[in-house]
Specification:
single chain, 37 residues, alpha+beta, Double Stranded RNA Binding Domain, two-stranded antiparallel sheet, 1 helix, flat
């Protein structure tokens, strides 16, 4: 299970987050959810 760095933007701040391959879409969906709260 390799991990990749994924850039996400949450509340106008950019973060690089490590996540497992195949979980990038879930991570982006979580960031989008937070941005719309």
């Amino acid at each position: 299970m390799s991990k990749e760095g994924v850039k996400v933007r949450i509340m106008d701040r950019e973060f690089t987050v490590a996540c497992r391959k195949g979980e990038q879409e879930d991570l982006q969906a979580a960031a989008d959810y937070l941005n719309h709260q």
